[in-house]
Amino acid sequence: MFTARRWWEHKGLQIGLLALVAGSAWTLRQTQGTLLLEIYQGITRPLQILQPGISPEERIRDARFMELQTRIVDLESQNQKLQSLLGYAEKDQGSAKRVLARVVGRSADHWWQQVTLNRGTNAGIQEGFVVKADGGLVGLVESVTPNTSRVLLISDLKSQVGVTISRTAAKGVLRGDSSAEGVLEFYEKVPNVKVGDLISTSTYSQKFPAGLSVGRVKSLDLNKLPASVAKVELFPPIQHLDWVTVYPKPENTDPEKPKVTNQQLQKFN
């Protein structure tokens, strides 16, 4: 009797703990954790009252506020772009006929080839109109509808622009390279040009008015055959165009414009 009592004193606590664990496991299994969740909520509910979280209504108000703030920032950015573009367009000689337009279409497969504008014949735009942005020449309108225009960019591989070196008047043809750079092929075998020279449209050009900013000479290859070439950094932000100005090419009334042969005209266009 004494031995059994001593055994129970030593082992009774362990047996009780094992019974409690087994009973708890059985309870959790039967209630699928509901009881434990209720106990946890009962313990944490006073703390939640003392430290309340954000209510659904407050979350909705915060989301609306962030949406409005984002829209305000976007409108401010657009306003700055428009003010800059208007200031740039006011300097154009043909500003009376200019049309402000926005890029509304651009294919990922033709990112450097063409863009679609939100203005067309209803706004007075026609095929052959010149397109500019901050930085200078962007391209040429190649097709129009009543409400849209498609622009061939100067970065297109098919694009050819007659240009001149502003410092020395050396002339050549700028071709697109499907990037923010162009390839300038000079008319002379050894042109007077150096890295950093500025480039603008030439008086020989048949499609664009002379004197439009285009870019800057980035590198030279004077040993290239059949003609020397240069890599040109394009000034207009071709890769992320937004707003542009569109206007007809001014009629040339200068009687001293140099005469060129048909072969040269085909090259400088």
How would you sum up this structure, described in words?
The protein is of the alpha+beta class. It has four helices and twelve strands. A six-stranded antiparallel β-barrel has the order 1-2-5-4-3-12. A hairpin with a 4-residue loop joins strand 4 (136-144) and strand 5 (149-153). The termini are far apart.
In a nutshell, what does this entry contain?
The protein is of the alpha+beta class. The chain contains 4 helices and 12 strands, in the order αααββββββββββββα. It has helices at residues 2-31, 34-50, 56-90, 262-267; strands spanning 99-105, 114-117, 130-133, 136-144, 149-153, 160-165, 171-176, 181-186, 198-201, 213-221, 229-234, 243-247.
Overall geometry comes to elongated
Number of strands: 12
- How helical, in percent, are the residues? 25-40%
Which strand order do you get reading across the main beta sheet?
A: 1-2-5-4-3-12
Order of helices and strands: HHHEEEEEEEEEEEEH
What's the main sheet like? Answer: 6 strands, antiparallel, barrel
Structural class: alpha+beta
Rg over alpha carbons: 37 Å
Unreliable segments (pLDDT under 50, ≥5 consecutive)? 253-269
Number of helices: 4
Measure the end-to-end span.
119 Å
On the 0-100 scale, what is the average pLDDT? 77
Q: Strand share of the residues?
A: 25-35%
Provide keyphrases for this structure.
269 residues, 4 helices, 6-stranded antiparallel beta barrel, single chain, elongated, alpha+beta
